[in-house]
Design brief:
Layout (H helix, E strand, L loop, with lengths): L2 E12 L2 E12 L3 E5 L6 H9 L6 E6 L2 E2 L5 H7 E4 L11 H10 L7 H14 L15 H19 L7 E5 L7 H16 L3 E5 L3 H7 L2 E6 L2 E6 L1 H4 L2 H8 L30
Helix pairs in contact: 3-4, 3-5, 4-5
The protein binds adenosine-5'-triphosphate.
GO molecular function: ATP binding; ATP hydrolysis activity
Keywords: ATP-binding, Nucleotide-binding, Translocase, Transport
Function: Part of the ABC transporter complex HmuTUV involved in hemin import. Responsible for energy coupling to the transport system.
C-alpha cells in the first residue's frame, strides 16, 4: 500500500483553544476517505493543516513522504489539488477560464490540444459544459461549486504529466448541490480514486459518506473520534454520541443510516491501487 498523505499527532492551538488536537492518519493511493463530524468539530481546520494552509503547533504532515513545508509550491501544484469551502473571484472570469486556472501552473509542458482536452474532460466531470462561456460571478452557489471541482479535476489531470502520486482535498464539496449533482460529484471523486488519486473529503451527509467512502474519519471536539470502514464507524451508538441523533431501529444492523433507494447499488467498486 502506498501512503501519500500522513499526519502524525497533528494539531493547532489558538491560545488555549485547540480546534484540532493530536490527529494521526494515513491516506493511501486510491483511497477515498470522508471526514464527518458536528459543526465546529475541527474538520475544516484539519483539512487546512493537511494542505498546509494552517501551520501545526504540534505534530507533522507529510505528502508522499516529504514534510509538507519542504515541498516547493510549483511541485505541490502537481501533487495535490484543493477545493476549499467557498471560492469568490474578484474578476469576471468565464467558467472555462476558471477551469483553465487549474492547469496554468502545472500544464505548461502540455500541448494546446492536450490542455483543451483536459478542460473539456473537467467540464464534463462537473456537468458544467453548458456553462463554459458564462461569467463565474453570475453563477449560483452550486454551479460555482461545480466549477471549483472542475478546476481541481483539471489541475490533477494536468499534474499527472509530472506525477501520478496525487492527493485531492475536498472541503464540503457538495454543500450547495442538489441530490443528483451531489452523487455525480462524488462519483467523479470516486473515479479519480479508482485511477489512483488519494481523496479526502469533508461531508455532512452520512448517507453520502457511507456510500462513497472507503474509510470514514469522525471528528469530535477537535479530536479523532473514530476511523475505519463505514459499517464499523457509522454505528447507531456513535451517531447518538457524536451527533446527538437517535437513528431509527432499522439502523441497528449494518450501516445504520437509512439509505434512500436511489443510493442502492451505487457504491462504486474500487480497483486495486
Ligand atoms: N483561526 C481561528 N482562531 C480561533 N478559533 C478558530 C480558528 N479557526 C477555527 N476556529 C475554531 O475551531 C473550531 C473548529 O472549526 P472548524 O471550522 O474546523 O470546524 P468544522 O468541523 O469544519 O465545522 P463546520 O461543520 O461548521 O464547518 C471552531 O470552534 C472554530 O470557531
Amino acid at each position: 500500500m502506498t501512503i501519500l498523505l500522513e499526519a502524525d499527532d497533528v494539531g493547532v492551538a489558538y491560545g488555549r483553544h485547540k480546534p484540532v488536537d493530536g490527529v494521526s492518519l494515513a491516506l493511501a493511493r486510491g483511497e477515498l476517505m470522508v471526514v464527518v463530524g458536528p459543526n465546529g468539530a475541527g474538520k475544516t481546520t484539519l483539512m487546512k493543516l493537511l494542505t498546509g494552509e494552517v501551520a501545526p503547533t504540534g505534530g507533522a504532515v507529510r505528502l508522499d513522504g516529504e514534510a509538507l513545508g519542504a515541498i516547493p509550491a510549483w511541485r505541490l501544484a502537481s501533487q495535490r489539488a484543493v477545493m476549499a469551502q467557498a471560492s469568490r473571484l474578484a474578476f469576471p472570469f468565464t467558467v472555462a477560464e476558471v477551469v483553465r486556472i487549474g492547469i496554468d501552473s502545472v500544464g505548461r509542458a502540455l500541448t494546446r490540444g492536450a490542455r483543451e482536452r483536459i478542460i473539456g474532460e473537467a467540464l464534463a466531470a462537473a456537468d458544467i459544459g453548458h456553462l463554459a462561456a458564462r461569467s463565474y460571478q453570475t453563477l449560483s452557489g452550486g454551479e460555482q461549486q461545480r466549477v471549483q471541482f472542475a478546476r481541481t479535476f483539471a489541475q490533477l489531470r494536468a499534474g499527472r504529466t509530472s506525477t501520478d502520486r496525487q492527493v485531492l482535498f475536498l472541503d464540503e464539496p457538495v454543500a450547495n448541490l442538489d441530490l443528483s449533482h451531489q452523487i455525480a460529484l462524488m462519483e467523479s471523486a470516486a473515479r479519480l480514486a479508482r485511477e489512483g488519486v488519494a481523496v479526502i473529503a469533508v461531508l455532512h451527509d452520512l448517507n453520502l459518506a457511507a456510500t462513497f467512502a472507503d474509510r470514514i474519519l469522525v471528528m469530535s471536539g477537535g479530536r479523532l473520534h473514530a476511523l475505519g470502514a463505514p459499517a464499523e464507524v457509522i454505528t447507531r451508538a456513535r451517531v447518538r454520541d457524536v451527533f446527538g441523533v437517535d437513528l431509527c431501529r432499522e439502523a441497528e444492523s449494518g450501516l445504520p443510516v437509512v439509505l434512500p433507494q436511489h443510493y442502492a447499488g451505487m457504491r462504486p467498486e474500487r480497483g486495486a491501487a
